From TrEMBL:
PROSITE patterns: FAD_PCMH (PS51387). SUPFAM superfamilies: CO dehydrogenase flavoprotein C-terminal domain-like, FAD-binding/transporter-associated domain-like. Residues 1-176 form the FAD-binding PCMH-type domain. It comes from the Bacteria. The lineage of its organism: Bacteria, Bacillati, Actinomycetota, Actinomycetes, Mycobacteriales. GO terms for molecular function: FAD binding; oxidoreductase activity. It comes from Mycobacterium asiaticum. InterPro entries: CO_DH_flav_C, CO_DH_flav_C_dom_sf, Diverse_Substr_Oxidored, FAD-bd_PCMH, FAD-bd_PCMH-like_sf, FAD-bd_PCMH_sub1, FAD-bd_PCMH_sub2, Mopterin_DH_FAD-bd. This is Molybdopterin dehydrogenase. Keywords: FAD, Flavoprotein, Oxidoreductase.
Length: 296
C-alpha cells in the first residue's frame, strides 16, 4: 500500500473542504468495504484518505412521517439489516443485506459507500434504481440531490464530482400492497453477482400489477432497468404466462457484458430465469401484505 496522508474530520463541512483541497488526490473512507482491498492490491493510488467515520451527523437513520427513509453516509449494512423499523419501511433495502459479502463485511461496510463505489455487480445500486432513491450530495457550493437513474454513470463511476461527498440517501415511502424480491447468482455466497435482479411492484385492488420495476445488476457497466418488460407487466393480471413473456423480453433486450466469469449468453439466460422467479416472489409478498391488511 502506497503512503498517504490520513485525515479524520469531525463535520461534513470539514470533509468537503478537505476534498476540495485535495482535488482528485483524495478518497473518502466510510467503512472500507471496497476501498481498502483496492488500496491493498495497489489498484489505485491516493495522496489523502479522508475518514468520515466519526462525523456524527452521518450516523443517522430517519423514517419520516410520510414514510420516507433517510440513511446517513456512515450507517453500516449491519445496522440496516438489524432494524425492524427499516424492515417495514424499506423492505427491499433490508432484503438485499444478506447478499452483501459476509457478516464481518456488513459490520464495517456502509450503504452509501456501496452506492458511491458504483460497482455494477453490487446489490444496493440496483435497489436504489428499482425504488427510485435520491442521493444527497454535498460539495463546496452547497447540497444537491441526484436521482438514482442519473447517479450511476459507468463502471465504478458516479455523478459525484471530485470535491463532492455523498452524505446520505433517501428511499421513498414503501407503498401499500407492494412486494419485492432480491435474487442473484454467484459462484459462492458473498462473491460478486454474475447476474442479479431487484424486483418491486404493487398489486392493486383488482389484482393487477402496478409500478413494476426490474433492476438488473452484474449484467452491464451500471445497474439497468428493462422498461420494455415493465411496460408489458403494467396493468396485467400476474400469472406464470405473463412472467414467462416478460422473461423473454428481458433476455432479448439486455446486452450483458462478458468476462472471465460468465459469457454474455449465460448472463442473458440467467436474467430471464431471475425475472420469472423475482416476479413470482414479489407478487407473493404483495399479495400476502394485502391479505394481512384485510385480516384474512
Amino acid at each position: 500500500m502506497s503512503p498517504f496522508d490520513y485525515h479524520r474530520p469531525d463535520t461534513v463541512d470539514e470533509a468537503v473542504a478537505l476534498l476540495e483541497t485535495c482535488g482528485g488526490d483524495g478518497k473518502v473512507l466510510a467503512g472500507g468495504q471496497s476501498l481498502l482491498p483496492v488500496l491493498a492490491l495497489r489498484l489505485t493510488r491516493l495522496g489523502h484518505l479522508i475518514d468520515i467515520g466519526r462525523v456524527q451527523s452521518l450516523q443517522s437513520i430517519d423514517i419520516g412521517d410520510s414514510g420516507v427513509v433517510s440513511v446517513g453516509a456512515a450507517v453500516t449494512h449491519a445496522r440496516v439489516e438489524r432494524s425492524d423499523a427499516l424492515a417495514a419501511a424499506a423492505p427491499a433495502v433490508v432484503g438485499a443485506m444478506p447478499y452483501i459479502g459476509h457478516r464481518a463485511i456488513r459490520s464495517r461496510g456502509t450503504v452509501c459507500g456501496s452506492l458511491a463505489h458504483a460497482d455494477p455487480s453490487a446489490e444496493l445500486p440496483a435497489v436504489a434504481l428499482a425504488v427510485g432513491a435520491e442521493m444527497i450530495v454535498r460539495g463546496p457550493t452547497g447540497q444537491r440531490t441526484v436521482d438514482a437513474a442519473d447517479f450511476f454513470e459507468g463502471y465504478l463511476s458516479s455523478a459525484l464530482a471530485e470535491d463532492e461527498l455523498l452524505v446520505g440517501v433517501r428511499f421513498p415511502a414503501w407503498p401499500p400492497r407492494a412486494g419485492w424480491s432480491v435474487l442473484e447468482i454467484s459462484r459462492r455466497h458473498g462473491d460478486f453477482a454474475l447476474a442479479g435482479l431487484v424486483t418491486t411492484l404493487v398489486v392493486d385492488d383488482a389484482g393487477l400489477l402496478r409500478r413494476p420495476a426490474l433492476s438488473y445488476f452484474g449484467i452491464a457497466s451500471t445497474p439497468v432497468r428493462v422498461v420494455e418488460a415493465e411496460q408489458l407487466l403494467e396493468g396485467n393480471q400476474p400469472d406464470s404466462a405473463l412472467f414467462a413473456e416478460a422473461a423473454h423480453v428481458v433476455s432479448g433486450a439486455l446486452r450483458p457484458r462478458a468476462d472471465d466469469h460468465a459469457s454474455s449468453e449465460y448472463r442473458a439466460h440467467v436474467a430471464g430465469v431471475l425475472t420469472r422467479r423475482g416476479l413470482a416472489e414479489a407478487t407473493e409478498r404483495a399479495t400476502a401484505r394485502t391479505t394481512q391488511r384485510a385480516g384474512v
